[in-house]
Design brief:
The protein is of the alpha/beta class. The chain has 2 domains: 280 residues, Queuine tRNA-ribosyltransferase-like (TIM Barrel, Alpha-Beta Barrel); 80 residues, no CATH class. It contains 15 helices and 17 strands. The strands form 5 sheets. It has a 5-stranded parallel sheet with strand order 4-15-14-13-12. Strands 5-6-10-11 form a 4-stranded parallel sheet. A hairpin with a 2-residue loop joins strand 2 and strand 3. Helix 14 runs antiparallel to helix 15. It is globular, with a radius of gyration of 20 Å. The protein binds one RNA strand through helix 5, strand 15, helix 11 and helix 14.
Amino acid sequence: MDQFKFKIISKDKKTSARVSEFSTPHGKLHLPTFMPVGTRATVKTLNPEELVDLNADIILANTYHLYLRPGSETVKKMGGLHKWMNWKRPILTDSGGFQVFSLALEKRPMQNTDKKLVKIKEDGVEFRSYIDGSKHFFTPEKVMQIQSDLGADIIMAFDECAPGESTHAYAKQAMDRTHEWAERCKKEHNKLQKSKKIKQALFPIVQGGIHDDLRVESTKFMAKLDLPGIAIGGLSVGETKEQMYHTLDVIKDYLPEDKPRYLMGVGTPEDLLEGVSRGIDMFDCVMATRNARHGSFWTKDGKFNLKNCGFKEIADPLMKNCGCYTCKNYSTSYVRHLYMENETFGLRLVTIHNLHFLLDLMSKVRTHIKNGDFTDFKDKFLKRYFKKS
RNA sequence: GGGCAGGUGGCGGAGCGGUCAAUCGCAUCAGACUGUAAAUCUGACGACCUUGUGUCUACGGGAGUUCAAAUCUCUCCCUGCCCA
């Protein structure tokens, strides 16, 4: 597996932050990085050229969604994800495990709560399609097959993501199942890779909820599998930020040093900084893109909502001195106008800005770690970001 | 000039004697969103305050009927359509 080489470039002295590189068949990842989410094989509202302009090293797609529509066989027939979506850089596919959790929660008002939508069994998970209610069954083996067909560079083990508030007993049950599934994923993955020209890296996912003993146990277990990277799941799923940071502190020393560490589903600018200082190398989150479509944007001075009437006649860009296409060319007034008028271009402009904000933040993080003043940078950023003006 | 249909909160439009400060939609204002069923969802939206099964002012204007009127009667004003 030497095509998935991991190389540490620089380490921060005061924190666990590090700058590194991870090689994949479609290019190198410059870590720490943020990965824009493109669940249905597209980062909503943007085209690949724009993502390249934003310096996105890698993007995500989702097993669950693409399996249901159009079907992973279709993507395979069309030449695989990269070719199909015209994205030449690396791709990571999520396993669909998270969807099991998010659908089981039944938190959506439009959800049919009469039906048991998800049944977790030892062998796998039975669930109903969110599209037409049809029954489907995922096993670790099947999820490996789907991800093999999709053809992403990094693929994820099938896991059970327990809600943040889960009891020790429940979290342990989910963790044990995830461990067993991870072993089965690894076995199936090894089998599938033999016939593949372009290899894929499988990452296992640490679970254990907010219970320190479980998290340590899970981290040790997953590290032992000796896969090319390791992911931390089951965070930012309802627990507090303090609990999330604490959990990262607890497992920090058990994470393999010589492999990329991926904190799944995170997050906000502050979460990225806190994550990096706890040794995290990869992040992904829908927040940048979703919030953009909902009218909120990030700046160095915090989070703002474009809908607020105070932005109506602001001639300045969303953020002064921002290097993104949106801020270089348009006033806040104009972007707000497009948003208020429900114009597609407005959604794109805010999406570009938010993604740029996070990707640029990570780029600065890499620079400051190398320069040896990461902590100073982080403290100053957070102080300004949370300062109420 | 004659006939008909109407005038309700920023707009559209319900209600047709009490449970109406008035359904609903739009607009507006604000909030939420963390491995995307999300260009979505939630809340506020007459005024005032001691924020309460609180007090005022309100369904074109005025005058009535009634214990009680956005809802019934009379009258005036206005709007739209049709006929001269």
